[in-house]
Amino acid sequence: MRRVAVYPGSFDPITNGHLDIIERTANIFDNVIVAVSNNPNKDHLFNRKERVEMIEEATSDYESIEVDAFDGLLIDYIKQQEAGIIVRGLRAVSDFEAEFQMASMNKKLDSDIETIFMMTKNKYVYLSSSIIREVSELGGCIEGLVPENVIPRLREEIGGE
Ligand code: ADP
Q1: For residue range 10-31, what is the model confidence (pLDDT) as tens digits?
Q2: Taking the model in full, what pTM does it have?
Q3: Cα 11 vs. chain centroid, distance in angstroms?
Q4: Contact (CB, 8 A) for 110 and 77
Q5: CA distances from 77 to 37, 51, 98, 110, 137 (A)
Q6: What is the mean pLDDT of residues 37-56?
Q7: Contacting residues for 101 by C-beta, under 8 A, at least 6 apart
Q8: Of these residues, 44, 88, 91, 107, which one is catalytic?
Q9: Active site residue 88
Q10: Is the CB of residue 48 below 6 angstroms from any atom belonging to ligand 1?
Q11: Does the beta carbon of 95 lie inside 6 Å of ligand 1?
Q12: Model pLDDT for residues 110-151, shown as the tens digit of each residue
């Protein structure tokens, strides 16, 4: 049986922390679907098409990685994709509570679907899309923290080095 994992998130924009989780997940499962959401509680810098494109460019070397957009309940999307596994990344302890709440709710909605957590690499513990947006806005260097293809996109969108 093909083992498919879904890695959901807003990826605004994708960082090297995300990419590391995607690549490590791809080493474990037959297929990984990076599923880009539209979070109504977040003010997105990039529209969803741009966020999807940036992930596609950054993962183009991997045949087993797919990028898609989804709306509505994650659990419904997972079933539609015949996946069964949700992957989330964990950084500092501060991620734990929200992730635990979400995983518990998803388990309640469908007990057949498992959420697994991948610990970030030490060097990405303090990396987030929001800090990347903030530093870019202030003209700071984000080299080595996001995939190469994301840098010109950020420059175009908000300026910066
Ligand atoms: P969401 O809005 O769903 O939190 P994000 O794009 O912020 O979307 O994050 C998607 C997933 O990636 C989450 O599980 C988050 O904890 C994880 N993540 C974000 N940044 C990193 C990082 N630097 N290292 C590992 N995981 C990360």
Answers
A1: 999 999 999 999 999 999 999 9
A2: 0.94
A3: 5
A4: no
A5: 11, 19, 20, 12, 34
A6: 91
A7: none
A8: 91
A9: no
A10: no
A11: yes
A12: 999 999 999 999 999 999 999 999 999 999 999 999 999 999
Atom of ligand 1 nearest to the CA of 126: 23
- Show the CA angle centred on residue 155, arms to residues 22 and 42, nearest 5°: 60
CA–CA gap between residue 35 and residue 52 (Å, rounded): 9
Helix (H) or strand (E) holding 109: helix 96-109
Cα 89 to Cα 125: distance, rounded to the nearest angstrom? 10
Nearest Cα neighbor of 29 from 91, 116, 97 is 116
Q: What pLDDT, on a 0 to 100 scale, did the predictor assign at position 159?
A: 57
CA distances from 42 to 45, 54, 130 (A): 9, 19, 10
Instruction: Kindly give the interhelix angle for 16-26 and 48-58, rounded to the nearest 10 degrees.
Output: 60
Residue 41 structure tokens: 């509680």
Which structure tokens are listed for 62?
């991997």
What's the 9 CA to ligand 1 centre distance in angstroms?
6
d(CA 54, CA 10): 12
Asked if residue 89 has its Cβ within 6 Å of ligand 1, the reply is: yes
